[in-house]
Amino acid sequence: MRYSFSNLITSLVFSILTAVPLNSAAVDNYAHRGGAGLSPENTLEGIEKSLRLKIDVIDMDIGITQDNVIVLYHDTVLNPDITRNTKQEWLSQPGPALKHLSYRELQQYDVGKINPQSLYANELPAQQSANKPIPIPTLQQAIQLIQTSSKPVRLQIEIKTDPDPSKQSATPEQIVPTLITLLRKKGIEKNVEIHSFDWRNLILLQKLAPEITTSYLSADEILDHSNYVRWHAGNDIKALQQSYPALIKQLGGKIWCPHYQELTPDLLKEAHQLNLKVNVWTVDSPDDMLHMVEMGVDGIITNRPDLLAKLLSSNNKASS
């Protein structure tokens, strides 16, 4: 087989480039659900543990109670996989909905452990359960905890609403204004990213508080968002024949947040050309983390911020 001089040069250049340590200093480490791979999700205990790591952003999910208290919780209804009653019994079925409970009623439940019989427990084998009952915290409590930290971390707050009326979800109009009021009261509106799969939240927030950064989540194949037009606030991305970066830019977003398996180099390049940041979710394997760093993403959302911190630190030391 003949090997031309140009082939040789190309091969040498590729070898040199791949031998250069990755510049991962610009990749932000997002502790998903407060660091759910290490501690109970969306809890003050989990956030506190993640703050001891080298992270950049604490991610958390929010819902709202019947009496308009914003709390940290992933689902619109109580989840039996992570929730126990006052008798320390696992809930037998999902519910009730957050919006049908007062904050005081919600405090009866314990979220300090994953049900070991659930499939979810298999996804987070390194999570350490709390040794005492853990109540569902408020967003205000989480903000106060983070503000007392010596680390200059940012917040990523995911608004958990569902456009399907049967899901017993709060509406954007019920939660977004209350959220804005709290963020402004705490003086962190410039230090927070608000993101959601339900784009109605983001469009409303941009209208009411344009100073707050919005992050548009997407998932074509990973989640059962068959009625994606509803999730995208009525925007039919297929009929419009637009890419996610183009549509999000048009809608006024600053960040695109796709599932890492749905991101391609071309889409990443397009997003960056449109001055959009690209953060990917949820990346827990070191191999996948490395691949995302190599691709050039801006942030990685992970249940294992400890593993990502180690990977980023190793790459930065190698490049210095």
TrEMBL record:
Q: Taking every annotated instance into account, which residue ranges of this chain make up the domain GP-PDE? A: 27-312
Could you tell me the keywords of this UniProt record?
Signal
**Family annotation (InterPro entries):** GP_PDE_dom, PLC-like_Pdiesterase_TIM-brl
**Is Kinase given among the entry's keywords?**
no
Q: Looking at the Swiss-Prot or TrEMBL record, what is one Pfam family this protein matches?
A: GDPD
Question: Is Signal one of the keywords?
Answer: yes
Where in this chain does the entry annotate a coiled-coil region? Answer: none
Sequence intervals crossing the membrane = none
- Matches recorded under PANTHER family: GLYCEROPHOSPHODIESTER PHOSPHODIESTERASE, GLYCEROPHOSPHORYL DIESTER PHOSPHODIESTERASE
What's the protein called, per UniProt?
A: Cytoplasmic glycerophosphodiester phosphodiesterase
**Organism of origin:** Candidatus Berkiella cookevillensis
Q: What is the lineage of its organism?
A: Bacteria, Pseudomonadati, Pseudomonadota, Gammaproteobacteria, Candidatus Berkiellales
